[in-house]
Amino acid sequence: MSNPSSPQDSRPVDPKEQGAQPEYPQRSIDPPGSLAEMTPQADHGEESYWGVGRLTDRVALITGGDSGIGRAVAIAFAREGADVVLSYLPEEERDAQDTRRWVEQAERKAITIAGDITDERHSTGLVERTLAEFGRLDIVVNNAAFQRTRTRIEELSTEEWDRTFKTNVYAMFWLCRAALPRMNPGSTIINTASIQAFDPSSNLLAYAATKAAIVNFTKALSQMAMERGVRVNAVAPGPVWTPLIPSTMPEEKVRTFGQDTSFERAAQPVEIAPVFVFLALNEARFVTGEVYGVTGGQSPY
Fold first, then answer.
1. Is 170 a catalytic residue?
2. Which residues lie below 8 Å from residue 177, measured CB to CB, with a gap of 6+?
3. Cβ neighbours, 10 Å, residue 135
4. Do residues 140 and 175 touch, judged by C-beta distance below 8 A?
């Protein structure tokens, strides 16, 4: 299995110094954004995550797998030995193919599937394609998200509200409904929630509401899924440096993004991925219905 040239340094380090700090020299970009447009570049673990094969021969389906948390999770899973199916929007093709190459450099198979998960047939088809390619599905990561910032409720259209819920909540439901009956005992579903579920920002009204729904859905589904021996958990990040930020937030907020955390910076995607790895491991076999905050000290739980 291919890994970075040297293992991760095990010596203690100051976590405040492990990522770029504001102010970021980032300009606004058109949604959904791309990694090439980000300044500074995000760290997904391309040169830093060191896997040891803890997920060998598992098969993972990751939505929003082209960039951000999705790419970091894909790289981590691959270096832990998993094959990966990446779901993403067609306009994110370049980033998705870069992620595929990182997975393949870890000597694992990557399948890339472009499309819009707000379409029920496409979402269900992701599960069918995964099973057709690999004959199994061990890990589902519902990570794709849509957000826009609005300062007044009257600026929020019904169409935007629908798209936010269809991307963040409906697609998660469709994927889980299609996948769960086909998953074997010991499999796991991991949903990406957010600190916004517990400490919502008024300018993210629709997005925050969907993230609260994800938390509730996770806890309810975990009870149902355990009858099949499948665990369901969620990860709730705080501010993370991904293309979603400069493509959906005002420039003045982007420049200081994450500055109010205890680390005085936003998280890098690679710092979120290990929690997903843990939740996928057999070692987490007694963990279900939980929400793991990775908020930089902002946790309101």
1. no
2. none
3. 8
4. yes
The CA–CA distances, whole Å, from 247 to 28, 147, 243, 244 equal 6, 9, 6, 5
The contacts of residue 65 (CB under 8 Å, 6+ apart) are 71, 73, 74, 84, 85, 86, 87, 88, 96, 99, 141, 143
| pLDDT, tens digit (0-9, with 9 covering 90-100), for 133-186 | 999 999 999 999 999 999 999 999 999 999 999 999 999 999 999 999 999 999
Token output for 44:
């997904």
Structure tokens at 28: 């606004």
d(CA 84, CA 27): 32
The answer to whether 86 and 113 have CB atoms below 8 angstroms apart is yes
The Cα 110–Cα 146 span in angstroms is: 24
User: Where are the extended beta strands (E) located within the chain?
Assistant: 59-63, 83-88, 110-114, 139-142, 188-192, 231-237, 291-294
Q: Which residue(s) pair with 142 in the sheet?
A: 191
Q: Which of 217, 202, 210, 199 lies closest to 296 in space, CA to CA?
A: 199
Q: Which residue has the tokens 């492990």?
A: 18
Please state, in angstroms and rounded to a whole number, the distance separating the CA atoms of residues 22 and 232: 35
Rounded Cα–Cα distance for residues 286 and 138 (Å): 17
Q: Which residue in 181, 204, 184 sits closest to 194, CA to CA?
A: 204
Catalytic residue among 88, 207, 292, 301: 207
- Which of the following CATH numbers is that of domain 53-294: 3.40.190.80, 3.40.50.720, 3.30.40.10, 3.20.20.190? 3.40.50.720
Structure tokens at 212: 């609260």
Mean pLDDT of the chain: 94
- pTM comes to 0.94
pLDDT for 176 = 98
Phi, psi of 267 (to 5 degrees): -70, 150
